[in-house]
Structure formats: structure tokens, C-alpha cells
Amino acid sequence: MGKPQYLQTFRKEWLNKKEFKHWLLEVEGDSSKAKFRFCKLILNAKNFDFEQHMNSKKHKTAHSFFSSYRSLGTFLNPNCSLSTSSAEGNLSLFIVAHFSILSVDHLGELCKTHFKGSEAAVNLKLHRTKTTNIINNVLAPHFNDDPISSIGDSPYSVLIYESTDISVLKFLGISIICFNKSLGNIIPTYLALAELETCDAQSIVDVIKK
After folding, report:
1. Do 66 and 38 touch, CB atoms closer than 8 A?
2. Which long-range contacts (CB under 8 A, 24 or more apart) does 38-44 make?
3. How far is the C-alpha of 154 from the C-alpha of 11, rounded, in Å?
4. Smallest Cα–Cα separation from 59: which of 36, 77, 76?
5. Angle between helix 82-98 and helix 104-114 axes, rounded to 10 deg
6. How far apart are CA 74 and CA 89, in angstroms?
7. Measured distance CA(130)–CA(134) in Å, rounded
8. Greater model confidence, 210 or 177
9. Which end of the chain, C or N, has fewer beta carbons within 10 A?
10. Torsion, CA 68, CA 70, CA 71, CA 74, rounded to 10
């Protein structure tokens, strides 16, 4: 008779461990699992599994992408008011939804010039670099986690888009159509952009399962 299986639970100290603290997250409601911030992957809460994943190509690629951006704290003024921070966040969301990021250089200066009676506008300092960091470090994590928590056990549809560019790496864009509880409506939303090992049906299925 084999040894009884020991069920490892998530340890809070892992969140402060040097190797894990930048990308490891708890899974709400399931102490036996852990989530990886960059890869959007959920594994068993085991130190060995974490170390194995750290050495995987998928983790290294995702980590190097996010590491190429400087910390958002570099661009934040600690004396900045909440209204200014809120304005910068909303303008960044507006830009990413409707325009090229290049246009924010003009938009930020336009707001400061024509809304001088507003404290938020007067202290506004929003250009391409800061907007990019707000999108990647503030908005993206929220919108990546929101569909998962919103779906729960509800039905949803998966839409996939395979890249057709001529680069060496091939990616699969994954979107979902689901009922958003907070909005009370059915919406299409981006879920992930995953690298394909090979350009065949089995590789696509494997990526979606992950």
C-alpha cells in the first residue's frame, strides 16, 4: 500500500519569498492552488511545482516581457491627489480603448491647458511612458482577473484568433463571451494571448486547456 498523499496548502510566506513575490498569487477560495501573475496559470500549491514552472519557457518569456517595463512607482508622485490619479487612470483606459498611446502626449497637455479650474487637470502629468505603465501594471491585472471572477460557474463561449504574421513565434488570441455580473450584461472580452508550440489543432487545444 502506497504512502498517503499529503495535500499541500498555500503558505503566506511564499508571497514574501524573493523568488516568488513578484509573480505568485493566492487563489481565492482554494488553498490548495496558486496562481501565476504573468502566465495566468494555476498549479498545485507546492514549492517544487513553483520551481519547475520558474524554469519553463512559458514563465521565462512572460516574466521577461513584464520585466522590460520599469516599476510604476518610478512615475508616481507620492503627493499626487486621488482625483489626479483617478483622472490619469481613466484617461489611460480611454486611450487604450480608442486611440494609439502616442496621442496621450497631446491629450495630457490639452487637459492641463483648458481645465485650469480643476485640481486633477492642473497636476496631471500623463505621457506615453507613464500611460504604458498604468496600462500594464494597473489596468491589465484588473481586466485579466475580472472575467475569471465574474464568470464563476456560469456558461461562456471561447473565441480564438491565431496570429498570421511572419515572425518566428506564433500566438493564439483568446477572447470570451460571458455574462458580466457587475454590468448585468453579456459582453465579449479579451482573456489571454498565449504562445503556440506548434501550429496545429492539438497545440491550440493544449493552450486553451492551460
Report:
1. yes
2. 38/62, 38/63, 38/65, 38/66, 40/144, 40/192, 41/210, 44/8
3. 30
4. 36
5. 140
6. 16
7. 6
8. 177
9. N
10. 180
**Type of residue at 92:** S
Q: Which amino acid belongs to residue 58?
A: K
Cell numbers placing 104: 496621450
Using pLDDT thresholds of 50, 70 and 90, give the confidence band for residue 123: confident
> What percent of the chain lies above the pLDDT cut of 70?
78
Average pLDDT over residues 160-175: 74
Which residues, at least 6 apart from 208, have a Cβ–Cβ distance to it below 8 Å?
158, 160, 172, 174
Contact 139, 96 (CB under 8 A): yes
Q: In what order do the strands lie in the sheet with 41-44?
A: 24-26, 33-36, 41-44
- The x, y and z cell numbers of residue 203, run together, are 497545440
Q: What is the residue whose three cell numbers read 518566428?
A: 168
Instruction: Give the tens place of pLDDT for each residue, 94-110.
Output: 888 888 888 888 888 88
Model's pTM, two decimal places? 0.44
User: Are the CB atoms for 135 and 124 separated by under 8 Å?
Assistant: no
pLDDT in the model for residue 17: 80
Sheet strand arrangement including 185-196: 156-162, 170-180, 185-196
Q: Where are the beta strands (DSSP E) in the chain?
A: 24-26, 33-36, 41-44, 156-162, 170-180, 185-196
Domain boundaries, the chain: 12-66, 81-148, 154-209
